[in-house]
Amino acid sequence: MSLEGVASATTPTSRRPASSKKKAKRSHDDDDEATSPSAPGKRVCTIKRETPVDDDVKIESDDDDDDVDTNLDFCSICKQDGDLVCCDVCPRSFHLTCLNKREDQLPLDTWQCHECQHNLSDTHVQKVCRDLTKLRNKALTMRSILTGICSHPFAKPFLAPVADVEYYDDVVEYRMDLGEVSSRLDRHEYDGDDVVSNAFVRDVQLVWNNCRLFNDDNSGLARAANTLDADFHKMLQAAAATKNSTSRGAIRTKKQ
């Protein structure tokens, strides 16, 4: 897991890594009070910036421990970092250029990405699950599940080992990342009678658990880990359903 764009925790007992980016709130002096970002109960479209901003953009201080970075630090389209606009529903972030938008086209209140607006978030996992139901070779099942997870829109931070983040090894006892799971799969360390090895499930689960242990519960990384965890279990259920279907077919064949 690579904590791209995430700095170290401030104390040995702190789980929360501080974001290296500034969060900017869109604000315009000529907006009336009804549409002002400072209106009571009004959320604002958030942009994470690496570069200086104009005078009409208010900057939130990163010194506040309650200011949790709730979105990922890379663009969901090009997978690169930079100035990012944040979805208010899911952990995705985007470059304005990748969205073909200008900043003045963003709403002053909440903003949802295309995937959330059109309920497309489950499309990837649904396709993986459909493909799993067609598999009859158990040797390919774990590889197909892992490929589905690694190609997930939220998977990038979990593909490689965590960088040298201060205090990480004081908090996390056993490191694990999806790249290591893939290497163990190549070395046949998950071979056995089961279609999906318990050790395989344990190692993938450890990736999500380590992330949630080290990062704040509302951080973009933890939110991504929660989604990946849920989607991973959907894939496991699809694989289990395929196994049961194959077993019933074998029993019917013997009876005939």
Automatic annotation (TrEMBL):
Q: Which keywords accompany this UniProt record? A: Bromodomain, Metal-binding, Zinc, Zinc-finger
Q: Which GO terms describe its cellular component?
A: nucleus
Task: Output the Pfam families linked to this UniProt entry.
Answer: Bromodomain, PHD
Q: Extract the Gene3D superfamilies matched here.
A: Bromodomain-like, Zinc/RING finger domain, C3HC4 (zinc finger)
Q: Which parts of this chain are annotated as the region Disordered?
A: 1-49
- Ranges for the PHD-type domain? 72-119
From the Swiss-Prot or TrEMBL record, what is one GO molecular function term?
DNA-binding transcription factor activity, RNA polymerase II-specific
Recorded hits in InterPro entries, A to Z, give:
Bromodomain, Bromodomain-like_sf, Sp110/Sp140/Sp140L-like, Zinc_finger_PHD-type_CS, Znf_FYVE_PHD, Znf_PHD, Znf_PHD-finger, Znf_RING/FYVE/PHD
- What range(s) does the Bromo domain occupy? 151-222
State the protein's name.
PHD-type domain-containing protein
- Gene source species: Aphanomyces astaci
Q: What is the lineage of its organism?
A: Eukaryota, Sar, Stramenopiles, Oomycota, Saprolegniomycetes
